[in-house]
Amino acid sequence: QVSICLFLCLSWGSCCPPSCQCTERAGAKAVLCSARHLEEIPKDIPQDAVFLKLDTNSITRIPSNAFRHLSHLEELDLSRNAIEKIDGAAFKGVAAGLRTLDLSSNRIRSIPKEALLMLNAKLRLANNPWHCECALQEVLWEAQLDPDSVQDITCHTAPREEYVGKPLLQVLDAGVNFCSVRQRTTDVAMFITMFGWFAMVITYVVCYVRHNREDARKHVEYLKSLPSTQNPAETISTVL
Fold first, then answer.
1. Which residues pair with 22 in a beta bridge?
2. Which of 33, 58, 126, 128 is the most exposed place for a label (fewest CB within 10 A)?
3. Which residues form the signal peptide (predicted)?
4. What are 100-140's pLDDT values in tens digits?
5. pLDDT over threshold 70, residue 58
6. What pLDDT digit, counting tens, does each position of 33-50 carry?
């Protein structure tokens, strides 16, 4: 067994993960880890892998630099998992070389835009419980979506109930702009905040003026009450 493992390591450049099968496809290395009950991405995937199938497992997260050592990777299949979280640097190191990335049929509600920076791959995002908002709209603007699956990107949740259950592309084609809605909300919140500060300043100034007037009135009354041989009006005029 040791000699067989050594032979495989020498021929493949590294040992194949025990839960996967390493083979060749069109003269390139393919690592097949489909339906192997995996809960995380294997650490020992051969560095010269070109095709990697991790579909139909129980993976819940794609951490940062998960595939960074796979500089030859062109096709990555992560469909039919339980992925809920994708880190911003999940595809760092492989984004430029990937031709296909399949994230369909997972539990993804949102994906950070930075995770798809420099990504030239054809992207499949169908059949996920997406929350339709500005962040997802920005991802769709920048990503190269697979045209065969784009209609299956539907709004599981949305700012307005009327969008729920509808294909996101249909909602956007109808003229909805989630980013402008967020901008208007931000502008309104800023206006309310500024108005609140302005009202506080005005209130302070009014109270300050009233307080000074009251002090001045009391001072004048005090001066009037003082015994004097001068005409009270002349005394007040002198003081003022």
1. 31
2. 58
3. 1-22
4. 999 999 999 999 989 987 888 999 999 999 999 998 898 88
5. yes
6. 999 999 999 989 999 999
Judged against a pLDDT cut of 80, whether residue 215 lies above it is answered with no
Residue 13: is its pLDDT beyond 60?
no
The whole-angstrom separation of Cα 87 and Cα 65 is 9
Beta bridge partners of 167: 154
What are the structure tokens assigned to 179, written together?
Answer: 């980013």
Amino acid present at 179:
C
Task: Kindly report which listed range (39-43, 71-75, 235-239) carries the lowest average pLDDT score.
Answer: 235-239
Residue type, 17: P
**Both tokens assigned to 144:** 């190269």
Q: Which amino acid is at 16?
A: C
Cα distances (angstroms) measured from residue 69 to each of 6, 10, 22, 47, 95: 21, 18, 17, 6, 12
* 175, burial (CB in 10 Å: exposed 0-12, middle 13-18, buried 19+): exposed
Q: What is the pTM of this model?
A: 0.70
Fold exhibited by the domain 21-176: 3.80.10
Tokens of 56: 């139909």
**Burial of 164: CB neighbours in 10 Å, binned 0-12, 13-18, 19+:** middle
With beta carbons less than 8 A apart as the criterion, state whether 24 and 48 touch: no
Q: How far is CA 175 from CA 71, 141, 155, 179, in A?
A: 40, 14, 15, 12
